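Question (not urgent): is this output format expected?
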Amino acid sequence: MGQQTLKAVISAITFTLAAFVPCLVAQAPTLQEQLAAQYKVAKMGSDSSGWSIVEEGTLLSLQKGGIKGSPYKTSFTRSATFQDGTVHAAADPASGKASDMQKKLCGVFKKCPTTPDAVNDEQTTKLFAKGDKVYPTKIDVNLDKDQVIMGIVACDTCNKTDPPTYNKANVVFVFPKGSLAKAGAGEVEDTIGQLLSISDDAQQASGDQGGGQQGGGQQGGQGQQADQNQQPQAEPQSIEKGMTTDQVEGAMGKPEKIVNLGPKKIYVYKDLKVTFLNGKVFDVQ
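Got this back:
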């Protein structure tokens, strides 16, 4: 093979690699994808008896009141904003007037609070109270407007609402101008958590299952506790860059959620998110 032919072959290989390597390098998950992994949305369905939740999502607990909701069967969805730690409720549509904040919401949702649906629905609205349990129904990130919009629907079985109405609302989380594009998912989740924190009811329910034999097991409980006290404490588990999924599961156990993005995969634990690239740890949050 001549020198010129060899150079031509090397040039062709280099060109081919340059074309395909960018396709093999996965990009980091977007803020939208990370929030979607953290907040599983509930799915609604309807039949002859009306609307109901057919698939539960991440159970959230309201930390503040002031959000006005409407029954899920109504076409109009009321909106409230959360900014600087304060809930700004929607203006009363029956008055025919909208606040400056509400006018902004008109632009976001393409539907103003003075529509006939809103006025006719005024008789059936309900204020969500602090402590009410809800599910997310959607989550949208608008980087241009520095807003995260979350739809919510009441968990009527949790709130002991009978008959169920599945009140719904949209909550617009407003961030300082230009900050959302630079914010990490953890920062955004902290802000959302000021109003809608992830409820620990499900974790408590799973923990209660282990207490069913409490009465019969009390006699041996003290002895088991003494044995545990005598055992040396296990060293804390650590996760390092480059570890495989099997190694992480061996150290941390099975994740609560898995987000599969092709070559990129995200393991979501209670207080930790592990991002894998091509099967190895790429980032930990």
